[in-house]
């Protein structure tokens, strides 16, 4: 672990739940101070000369969070950590198929704000989820076409439901698209499942 490690990355890498992460932090962060007990006075002086916690941590082979914890104490130093853990937990919730309202609740913000931020691109949750509406735009399908593809099982079943909207993981749709070898109309960018469908469409619409 280097001074540059971010808690958010560590938590994501280890797939830790919020409560678990908090527990580990409480235990290990305090333990991590122990080898630096003799350094703390020097850390304090360094900080008074405007050296950053990151730089101090790197010199002592520690973490900036540990420096902050040693100098500011628990829990004031933990506020940023708690914020980071909320973000980690929000991503975990999203990947586990939680609704946007669930994710917003984890982040402690109103659901409509999160929905707005996701639409505007201010917030991003990965992988992306695609709704029927997104699929229609992507493939140029009408509502009746997508309804039929869903009923006939041409499309994979949705990966989840958020309120009244079914959704699919974008990577799952991309994999389906690669396997399906869709037939695209070169004139209007509509995708067809079969060459017969494409031929009928060209005759009807473009000839
Ligand atoms: Zn066309």
Q: Write out the strand line-up for the largest beta sheet, numbering strands in chain order.
A: 1-3-2
Helix count equals: 12
Instruction: State the total count of DSSP E strands.
Output: 5
Question: Shape from CA axes?
Answer: elongated
The pLDDT mean sits at: 84
Helix percent band: 55-70%
Q: What is the percentage of strand-forming residues? A: 5-15%
Characterize the biggest β-sheet: 3 strands, antiparallel
Report the order of strands and helices. HHHHHHHHEHHEEHEEH
The rounded distance between the terminal residues' Cα atoms is 65 Å
Structural category is mainly alpha
Instruction: Indicate the low-confidence ranges by residue numbers.
Output: 1-5
Bound molecules: zinc ion
Radius of gyration: 25 Å
| Count of individual domains | 3
Domain C2H2-type: 185-206
Protein name: C2H2-type domain-containing protein
Organism: Janibacter alittae
Please summarize what this structure is.
With 207 residues, the protein is mainly α.
């Amino acid at each position: 672990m280097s001074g540059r490690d971010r808690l958010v990355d560590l938590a994501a890498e280890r797939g830790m739940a919020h409560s678990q992460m908090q527990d580990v932090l409480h235990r290990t962060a305090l333990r991590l101070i122990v080898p630096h007990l003799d350094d703390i006075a020097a850390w304090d002086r360094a900080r008074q000369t405007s050296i950053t916690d990151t730089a101090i941590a790197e010199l002592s082979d520690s973490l900036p969070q540990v420096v902050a914890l040693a100098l500011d104490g628990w829990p004031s130093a933990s506020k940023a950590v708690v914020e980071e853990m909320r973000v980690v937990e929000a991503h975990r919730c999203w990947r586990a198929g939680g609704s946007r309202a669930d994710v917003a609740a984890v982040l402690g913000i109103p659901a409509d704000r999160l929905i707005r931020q996701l639409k505007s691109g201010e917030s991003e949750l990965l992988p992306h989820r695609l709704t029927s509406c997104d699929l229609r735009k992507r493939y140029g399908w009408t509502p009746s076409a997508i309804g039929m593809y869903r009923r006939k099982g041409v499309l994979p079943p949705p990966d989840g439901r958020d309120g009244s909207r079914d959704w699919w993981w974008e990577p799952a749709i991309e994999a389906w698209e690669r396997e399906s070898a869709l037939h695209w109309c070169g004139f209007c960018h509509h995708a067809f499942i079969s060459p017969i469908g494409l031929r009928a469409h060209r005759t009807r619409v473009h000839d």
